[in-house]
TrEMBL record:
The active site is at residue 252. Pathway: Carbohydrate metabolism; D-ribose degradation; D-ribose 5-phosphate from beta-D-ribopyranose: step 2/2. The gene is rbsK. InterPro entries: Carboh/pur_kinase_PfkB_CS (IPR002173), PfkB_dom (IPR011611), Ribo/fructo_kinase (IPR002139), Ribokinase (IPR011877), Ribokinase-like (IPR029056). Pfam families: PfkB (PF00294). NCBIfam families: D_ribokin_bact. GO terms for biological process: D-ribose catabolic process. This is Ribokinase. Belongs to the carbohydrate kinase PfkB family. Ribokinase subfamily. One of its GO terms (molecular function) is ATP binding. ATP binds at residues 184, 220-225, 251-252, 276. Catalyzes the phosphorylation of ribose at O-5 in a reaction requiring ATP and magnesium. The resulting D-ribose-5-phosphate can then be used either for sythesis of nucleotides, histidine, and tryptophan, or as a component of the pentose phosphate pathway. CDD domains: ribokinase (cd01174). Substrate binds at residues 11-13, 39-43, 140, 252.
Length: 307
């Protein structure tokens, strides 16, 4: 069992299903409303935990109903919450999500207590980070804290994986500290200011990211799979053909699968194949954290190759 430390966000998802996404100023009637755990850090923690990783969550929630929901859910999922703090003032983060029948979505995140995860919080979790195989973080917390977390994990000689979502500027000196960066096409474009409309452009932009110092880049391409670019390899792993009903948590599912496979000692190419299967299973269900598959479900797809 691999050990993974995740510095990241928790938000409660407030999701509505609609026939199509609204235009500005338009009111639509929805067909279904769902409430559940979310946030990129939490989603990735739950994904990795269900796949067999021992997960240590580092984050913050509010002292409210949604915060208690978070704590209860982490406990049910078997995630270590010794470093999930409860903020006495700020509310738990929320995400308001609209999902259309074509599985496309629109999301508004209000960070709440996530914005109060400070450098001191990372220092308090230093021993936890030291005892794990992989450190994973995203960009839904304050960037000073995220960058400090990356520096801390790098100095502790951990494999540092950064999912740069949502896209935000990153201090140039941080890029060389990142072992693997996992942007989607939009995030890659934001980080490099380069077009990504064609696979050749994605490859070129990923190489530009490597030129900034990132060791390996894994670009998630949705239903098209993922593109690996490192010093010796450019490899496109195609996605599985599935009937997607909700793509909201696909990137988080992929990252949870990737860190699990790598923490177990799999080669990066094998880990991407595994992560593609995890993402393919997740998009066939509604919701974010609830859509994360179990290890047994992923293993049932072992006869399928998506190299």
């Amino acid at each position: 069992m691999g050990k993974v430390a995740i510095l990241g966000s928790y938000v409660v998802d407030l999701a509505s299903l609609v026939d199509r996404l609204p235009i500005p100023g338009e009111t639509l009637l929805g067909s279904r409303f769902m409430i559940g755990p979310g946030g990129k850090g939490s989603n990735q923690a739950i994904a990795a935990g269900r796949l067999g990783s021992e997960v240590f969550m580092i984050g913050r929630v509010g002292n409210d109903f949604f915060g208690q929901m978070a704590i209860d859910n982490f406990r049910r999922e078997g995630i270590n919450i010794d470093h999930v703090a409860i903020d006495p003032i700020s509310e738990t983060g929320t995400a308001q999500i609209l999902v259309g029948q074509d599985s496309e979505n629109m999301i508004v995140v209000v960070p709440g207590a996530n914005s109060k995860v400070e450098i001191e919080h990372v220092n308090n979790a230093r021993a936890v980070i030291q005892g794990t195989d992989i450190f994973l973080t995203q960009f839904e917390l304050g960037m000073k804290t995220v960058e400090y977390g990356i520096e801390t994990a790098f100095n502790l000689k951990k494999l540092v994986i950064v999912n740069p979502a949502p896209a935000q500027p990153l201090t140039r000196e941080i890029f060389p500290l990142v072992s693997i960066m996992t942007p989607n096409e939009t995030e890659l474009q934001s980080l490099t200011n380069m077009p990504v409309d064609e696979i050749e452009q994605v490859e070129k932009a990923a190489k530009a990211l490597r030129n900034l110092g990132v060791d390996q880049v894994v670009v998630t391409l949705g239903r098209k799979g993922a593109l690996l670019v490192n010093e010796s390899t450019v490899q496109h792993s195609v996605g599985l053909s599935v009937n997607a009903v909700d793509t909201t948590g696909a990137g988080d599912a992929f990252n949870g699968g990737l860190v699990t496979a790598l923490a177990e000692g799999k080669h990066i190419k094998e880990a991407i194949v595994f992560a593609n299967k995890v993402a393919a299973l997740s998009v066939q269900r509604h919701g974010t954290a609830p859509s994360m598959p179990l290890r047994s479900e992923v293993e049932s797809l072992d006869h399928i190759s998506n190299k």
